[in-house]
Write a structure and sequence with these properties.
Length: 211
């Protein structure tokens, strides 16, 4: 504990030194490095925990998320896979594994994992929305709309579900339905989601709607 505290103090001193020598740019560089080092320390801590208990699905899941945040998707997939091997009902591990496969463009494997996540937890709205995104890529618009509707039913604030549902309607030329969906997004999402709100407004106007 004393050693860890010393390392933390040392990191602060390094950031201060960068501020004095390099200005704000140096501080940003040091902060980014500190963030990467923090993730690496988390991975090391979880690796040690896994060595002590190799059957703990949660630690594999957490380490997988750490690898994902470093864009090391192959390592993330390995850990998410171990998580579901140890806990076959781990919906969030399937969901995260699907995200990792999607980063590689392996949509079929991602689709399978999203479906597994839904089987484990039928109320996991993000899994429906992400599966809908793949359905849209494949031209399966009705399936996409169905999944998005279920996602919104589970969580009316699921932004990606509105966006994907509206996109599916647009692909079918059902522009009035798309406009209604974008307007539903405006009514239900947080006012802090400025980018999504602005995007929805732009699509409504582009489709001939009125805000």
């Amino acid at each position: 504990m004393v050693e860890r505290r010393f390392l933390g103090v040392k990191r602060v001193l390094i950031c201060i030194l960068c501020m004095l020598l390099l200005g704000d740019v140096g501080v940003g560089f040091a902060a980014n490095n500190a963030g990467v080092n923090s993730i690496d320390m988390t991975i090391q801590d979880l690796t040690n925990a896994i060595k002590k208990n190799p059957n703990d699905a949660v630690n594999y899941y957490k380490r997988g998320n750490a690898y994902f945040s470093k864009a090391e998707y192959g390592q993330a997939i390995k850990d998410f896979t171990k998580a579901v091997e140890n806990n076959p009902g781990y919906a969030y591990a399937y969901l995260s594994c699907g995200w990792s496969y999607a980063k590689f463009g392996q949509d079929e494997l991602a689709l399978n994992d999203y479906s597994q996540a839904i089987m484990c937890n039928p109320f996991l709205e993000q899994a429906y929305s992400d599966r809908a995104n793949i359905y849209i890529k494949r031209g399966l618009y009705d399936l996409a709309i169905g999944d998005c509707s279920r996602a919104i039913q589970n969580n009316p604030k699921c932004i990606t579900a509105y966006i994907n549902k509206a996109a599916a309607y647009e692909k079918q030329g059902l522009f009035q339905e798309a406009i209604k969906t974008y307007k539903s997004l405006l009514l239900n999402v947080s006012s802090q989601d400025l980018q999504e709100i602005d995007g929805a407004k732009q699509r409504i106007l582009a489709l001939g709607g009125i805000i």
